[in-house]
Inverse folding.
């Protein structure tokens, strides 16, 4: 059992943990700064490797600084890929040898590694047609394609794939940032922010709030609602914790209609924006700009969600923390400006989508228990079945998606009174329009 006196603690034998001091030594030797109150460990619950505090860190403390000289790439996909490959090929002669040595990208499994087929029993089939079913392989397809970095050639070398995967899962727009990329993603518990060092070109990571000892240190892979939960799953293969931003359907009709989701005339006084940085509630367009033209729901908890969120609401994501009460209050303001005709359309679509799927939430909950048990048994027999693990991933995703769809319907029904009642007006206008047409 864990902690028994005869057992060597996991962190001493696991190179993904035990090599951290050597990595820190390298990082500091190369001019990087990292606070002593930070270590690496497996996050309780998820068991994902990530950064964890060893002592309390007050808000606004500089936790790390990555000098420009340690950042790899930052030019574009193709050049950065070539640089990473070249450095990896150099082995111990590369400045980044210790960085590559400590990398754990090969430990994560991405949807683009799934079998492409959607035959029964495949992970893709288990997505039941839900997004990202249509783009599980889009990054690799683009990369290999005529307009991508390989210009129509297939990637065959495992070393090329390793470089590609490191870049896809660890880089940000500035390139690959050693140490920074040991932080996991959490938009609810995000507790860091970055400051670019304009003069020297490096990057500092600071604590956003007080971080207690033994707590994971998080950043974000999706600022301000730019990537949905579906996008994150498609790229990284994990379903993010709350808040989740679910998107579905992308017809052109919705794109146009999305401009009319909110009541923005000045005879309505429901969206009181008290942010001193904003010009004023009616001047601040973000208050009334849809985050995306798709059907969309921002899920805060199993029972709280914002339907058809604005950019103002999704602006919180990745930029700060908001308590459940804080979310409740901004969502109440938001729902009061949201036209019920759009809520009805969203609710209808969520219901139709759910009804069109071959299994229900309750069935999926049983299926996933069974599939996880099967996977565990296979492991006990020493069998690593990648497809069985992919299938579990896909079912976990579709189950979370279905729960978001059901919550959308629940919120639309239970909070019916909260939305701006335009349904009758909209119906009358439509009828008048139809009569004119005749
Ligand atoms: C930039 S790395 C983060 C650090 C990484 N876990 C490590 O130990 O090196 C990105 C990868 O971490 C994992 N990851 C990050 N955030 C996660 C989360 N919230 N849930 C599950 N996996 C996550 C995914 O495998 C992702 O591809």
């Amino acid at each position: 059992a864990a902690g028994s006196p005869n057992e060597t603690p996991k962190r001493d034998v696991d190179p993904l943990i035990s090599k951290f001091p050597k990595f820190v030594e390298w990082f500091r030797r190369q001019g990087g700064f990292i606070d002593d109150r930070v270590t690496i460990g497996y996050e309780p619950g998820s068991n994902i490797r990530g950064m964890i505090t060893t002592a309390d860190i007050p808000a606004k403390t500089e936790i790390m600084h990555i000098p420009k000289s340690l950042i790899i790439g930052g030019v574009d996909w193709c050049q950065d890929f070539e640089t990473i490959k070249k450095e990896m090929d150099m082995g111990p002669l590369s400045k980044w040898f210790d960085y590559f040595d400590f990398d754990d990208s090969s430990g994560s499994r991405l949807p683009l590694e799934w079998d492409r087929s959607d035959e029964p029993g495949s992970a893709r089939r288990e997505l039941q047609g839900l997004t990202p079913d249509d783009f599980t392989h889009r990054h690799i397809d683009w990369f290999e394609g005529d307009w991508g970095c390989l210009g129509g050639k297939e990637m065959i070398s495992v070393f090329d794939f390793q470089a590609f995967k490191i870049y896809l899962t660890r880089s940000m727009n500035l390139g690959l940032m050693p140490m920074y990329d040991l932080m996991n993603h959490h938009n609810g518990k995000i507790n860091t922010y970055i400051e670019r060092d304009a003069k020297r070109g490096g990057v500092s990571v600071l604590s956003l709030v007080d971080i207690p000892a033994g707590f994971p240190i998080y950043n974000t892979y999706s600022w301000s609602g730019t990537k949905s939960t579906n996008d994150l799953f498609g790229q990284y293969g994990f379903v993010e914790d709350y808040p989740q931003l679910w998107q579905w359907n992308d017809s052109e009709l919705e794109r146009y209609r999305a401009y009319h989701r909110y009541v923005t005339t000045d005879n309505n006084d429901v969206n009181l924006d008290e942010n001193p940085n904003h010009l004023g509630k009616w001047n601040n367009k973000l208050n009334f700009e849809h985050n995306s033209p798709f059907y969309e729901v921002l899920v805060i908890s199993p029972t709280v969600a914002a339907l058809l969120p604005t950019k103002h609401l999704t602006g919180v994501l990745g930029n700060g923390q908001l308590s459940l009460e804080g979310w409740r209050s901004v969502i109440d303001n938001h729902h009061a400006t949201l036209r019920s005709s759009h809520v009805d359309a969203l609710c209808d679509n969520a219901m139709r989508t759910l009804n069109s799927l071959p299994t229900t939430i309750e069935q999926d909950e049983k299926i996933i228990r069974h599939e996880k048990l099967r996977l565990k048994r296979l492991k006990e027999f020493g069998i690593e079945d990648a497809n069985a693990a992919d299938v579990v991933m896909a079912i976990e995703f579709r189950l979370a998606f279905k729960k978001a769809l059901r919550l959308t319907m629940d919120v639309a029904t239970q909070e019916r009174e909260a939305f701006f009642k335009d349904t009758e007006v909209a119906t009358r206008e439509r009828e008048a329009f139809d009569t004119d047409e005749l």
About this structure: The pocket of S-adenosylmethionine is lined by residues 46, 48-50, 104, 108, 169-170, 181-182, 184-186, 236, 238, 240 (CB under 6 Å). The chain has two domains: 10-224, 225-429. The chain has a mean pLDDT of 89. Residues 225-429 form one domain.
